[in-house]
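dumping this here so i dont lose it
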């Protein structure tokens, strides 16, 4: 029997800089397996510009916490040896590991170079607002601490298309395009052209860059044994690039190498266009669904819940949708802050975990809480993950016919005691009449979330009257499943 896949983003922005994270990952692997997690997305494992960096200010992708560079051997998360041990621990638990791949930019160069640039508008990179001038750019990466181990390739200004900082004038936040270079036209149209994001912008048209990127990825896969890729900021990289890269890498791998891209846009049209441009070689995080959750959580019970799935990948390309409620970038204080309100999170997680479409990604802070920001864990999230693991199977029928109360049923299959009914209300609560099927006639269903205490009996024609309390979700399961989840939890 096929088991539902569930991913967890196993990190968040505000983890302690104590170098113990990889050890914590290894220690938790078995418990995550028992919970029902089948995939983990781990943070960037390579050396950043400083020890306490989350990992997206990439310095040396060949240094996984092995060399004394940027004032540290370990990364924020630990050493290379500890990282490899964490990957192996997840594998022993039967959990696939997704590595975080950040290719768009580099930071923390080792030497300055004088480079001729022009200045483009930060708001429309197609508009040049400054003539040629010379700046000092941190564009030379020689990796002196690594001393050529694994790769002797070094970077200079010819491998980049632009930067945002001039050491000579100390100006930052600029869009300096290197003379003779151009922004790649096959990127997101936001800001006219969103090739440039930050730091030293990698030139994906440079044949040396392309060759070295392929070489590095093959090395990384062989060195670490990871199973899949989380691709950062794909909207800022030439759209055909990943299509060709993934095809070539997969042609030599003896495993599928699934990939999920972060294309940050709430416009499902842009997400669909990108999937077409890469010929479906990857899945995408369903950012459009995240914004539906965000908007619903801030609507004070006035969101039209019947439309909660409209204009999302979950609705239009479920085979390519990785769904999520929040992540490290949407946390308070981050660049994409759009944190879903606490009261709505159980409803949102029920949607991504208990439906048949898409692969859900649970956020670390939602499961464990975040003491740094005084954020609570999501109530009953562990129970929802287990419901997905054991009982969310079979034919699905939706009852999205009301602005306040919606629901659906899963009619079960060969998984023992599977089948459930879900009712959500963003307002005053209510009841939804839904059909489980005649084979359930006479059975009692119980609300495993605990809000509704009286069981629902399925009538002879297979229908039941399932309820949800105001602003909450109720999940109704058979008695055997209820006892397993509630009595023995």
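and the seq i came up w/
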């Amino acid at each position: 029997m096929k088991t539902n896949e569930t991913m967890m983003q196993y990190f968040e922005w505000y983890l302690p800089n104590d170098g113990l994270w990889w050890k914590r990952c290894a220690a938790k692997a078995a418990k995550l397996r028992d919970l029902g997690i089948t995939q983990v997305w781990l943070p960037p494992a390579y050396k950043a510009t400083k020890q306490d960096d989350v990992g997206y200010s990439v310095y040396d992708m060949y240094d996984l916490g092995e060399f004394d560079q940027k004032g540290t051997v370990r990364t924020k998360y630990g050493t290379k040896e500890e990282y490899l041990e964490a990957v192996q621990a997840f594998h022993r638990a039967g959990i696939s590991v997704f590595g975080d791949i950040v290719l768009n930019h580099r930071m923390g160069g080792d030497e300055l170079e004088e480079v001729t640039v022009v200045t483009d508008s930060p708001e429309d990179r197609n508009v040049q607002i400054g003539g040629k001038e010379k700046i000092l750019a941190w564009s030379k990466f020689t990796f002196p601490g690594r001393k050529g181990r694994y790769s002797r390739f070094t970077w200079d200004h010819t491998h980049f298309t632009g930067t945002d900082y001039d050491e000579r004038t100390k100006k930052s936040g600029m869009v300096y395009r290197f003379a003779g270079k151009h922004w790649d036209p096959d990127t997101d149209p936001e800001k006219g052209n969103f090739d440039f994001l930050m730091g030293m912008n990698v030139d994906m048209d440079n044949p040396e860059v392309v060759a070295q990127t392929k070489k590095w990825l093959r090395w990384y896969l062989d060195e670490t044994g990871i199973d899949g890729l989380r691709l950062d900021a794909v909207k800022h990289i030439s759209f055909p690039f990943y299509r060709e890269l993934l095809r070539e890498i997969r042609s030599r791998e003896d495993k599928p190498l699934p990939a999920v891209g972060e294309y940050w846009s709430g416009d499902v049209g842009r997400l669909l266009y990108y999937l077409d441009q890469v010929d479906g070689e990857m899945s995408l995080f369903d950012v459009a669904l995240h914004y539906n959750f965000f908007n619903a959580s801030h609507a004070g019970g006035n969101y039209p819940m019947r439309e909660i799935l409209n204009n999302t990948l979950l609705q239009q390309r479920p085979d390519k949708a990785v769904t999520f409620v929040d992540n490290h970038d949407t946390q308070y204080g981050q660049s994409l802050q759009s944190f879903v309100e606490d009261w709505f999170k159980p409803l949102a997680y029920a949607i991504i975990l208990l439906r048949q479409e898409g692969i859900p990604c649970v956020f670390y802070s939602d499961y464990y809480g975040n003491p740094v920001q005084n954020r609570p864990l999501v109530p009953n999230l562990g129970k929802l993950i287990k419901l997905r693991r054991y009982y969310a199977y079979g034919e699905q029928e939706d009852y999205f016919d009301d602005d306040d109360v919606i629901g659906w049923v899963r009619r079960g299959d060969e998984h023992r005691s599977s089948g459930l009914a879900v009712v959500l209300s963003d307002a005053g609560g209510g009841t939804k009449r839904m059909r489980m099927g005649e084979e359930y006639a006479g059975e009692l269903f119980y609300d495993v979330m605990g809000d509704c205490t009286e069981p629902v009996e399925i009538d002879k024609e297979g229908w039941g009257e399932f309820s949800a309390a105001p602003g909450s979700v109720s999940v109704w399961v058979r008695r055997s499943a209820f006892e397993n989840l509630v009595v023995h939890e």
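The radius of gyration is 24 Å.
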